[in-house]
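Q: How would the structure tokens look for this protein?
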Amino acid sequence: MMRHQGTKTLETERLLLRRVTAADAREMYEHWASDGEVTRYLTWPTHTGVDMTEAFLRWTERQYEKPEHYHWGIVEKASGKLIGNISVVRLIEEIDAAELGWALGRAWWGRGIMPEAARAVLGFLFDEVGVNRVYAGHDAENQKSGRVMQKIGMTYEGRQRAAGRNNRGVVDMDQYAILKGDPIK
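A: Here is the predicted structure in token form.
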């Protein structure tokens, strides 16, 4: 059984994972939410104005009142910039499972940032929340996201045809998962 605690601040060598607020709207908008290259494979639309980002962040702030809500902004310690986000997008209480989703500003791609953030979240979910299974899926054409899943120790479980919808439409989805007893890489 999961022991929900809400979004707690997590820290890694290079990153601070923290709650986001409406005050973060400009950075989120400029660093990733307005970039069609970043949002191409995501399930939410590219933001067309900072007001759209602010509305999302105000909604997120309200969700933090729920102990089962997990959504972190990723802050690069060296610059102090908010550069992405990682969250539990779905919980399945009956099997103690959580689905992860993430986005990272294009300027920070290829630096190992998302695997570093995901490892911190996995440790928190397994050790503190009591999750047994963490899974994630990606558009079959978004192999960069799949590489993140592989780097953190997730096992490829297969491709589901026409199983997801994102900004490209209905797409095939590659599925990965890691269990509590599996090594986080």
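The first strand starts at residue 10 and ends at 11.

Residues 113-129 form the longest helix (17 residues).

Upvote if useful.
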